Amino acid sequence: MLIRLPAVLGTATVLLGGFAIWSHQQANDLRETPATRNVALTDNARTSEIKGSVNDVVNTVFSYNHTDIAKTERAAKELLVGKAVQQYEVMFGLVRKSAPEQKLVLTTTVTDSAVKMLQGDRARLLVFADQRSTRGSDGKSSYAGAMLAVDAVWRSGKWRISNIDTFTGGTTPNP
C-alpha cells in the first residue's frame, strides 16, 4: 500500500499540473478576444477624440462649394489616404464635373457617429450625416441623409480616412 501511494500522488500531480496549464490557456483565450482588444469599448476619452476628428474630416471632404473647389481638393489630399483617395475620386467625379455649371454648394453635417472598433492606430466608425445641396443655377435645394462606414488611421499626428463604404455602391449625394 505504501508503495502505491507515491505512484498515485505522482499521477495526481501530473493530472493536476496538466489541468492547471489547460485552465491557464483557457483563461488567456477568454482575455484575448477581439472585443477585449477594442479600446472603443473601454476608453471613452480616446473614443470621443476619434469621433470628433473623423466627424470633422467627413464634414470637410464631403462639403463642396463651386467657388472654392481648391479648398475641398486640398482637404481631400490631406485627410484621405490609401483606398479612400480613389473612392473619393469616383464619388466626387460627378459633383466636380457639374458643380461649376450648376453653381453647386454641397454641405455635409455629421449628425451622429459611433466607433465600432478602435485598436492602436486604426479605427472603424459608422457615420450618419445630413447633406444639403443647393444649385445656384436654378436656386433649388435638396436634402438627403447619408450613412457611411469609414476606416481611419492615425498618420502624421492626425486621424485620416483610409476606406469609405457608402452602402450604395460608391455613389455620392445628388448634385
What does this structure look like?
There is one protein chain. The chain has about 180 residues and is α+β, with helices and mostly antiparallel strands. The protein folds into two domains: about 1-30; about 45-165, Nuclear Transport Factor 2, Chain: A (Roll). The protein has helices at about 5-30, 35, 45-60, 70-80, 85-100; strands at about 65, 105-120, 120-135, 140-155, 160-165. The protein has a five-stranded antiparallel sheet with strand order 1-2-3-4-5. The longest helix is centred in the N-terminal third of the chain and has 28 residues, at about 5-30. The relative contact order is 0.16.
Strand order of the largest sheet: 1-2-3-4-5
| Second-tier CATH architecture of the largest domain | Roll
Shape: rod-shaped
Gyration radius, rounded: 26 Å
- Assess the beta-strand content as a share of residues: 25-35%
CATH class of the largest domain: Alpha Beta
Order of helices and strands: HHHEHHEEEE
The average pLDDT is 86
- Structural class, by secondary structure, is alpha+beta
Could you estimate the helical fraction of the residues in percent? 40-55%
Question: CA-to-CA gap between the ends?
Answer: 92 Å
Compute the number of strand runs: 5
Looking at the structure, the CATH topology of the largest domain is: Nuclear Transport Factor 2, Chain: A
| Low-confidence parts | 169-175
Oligomeric form of this entry? Answer: single chain
Count of structural domains? 2
Provide a count of the helices.
Answer: 5
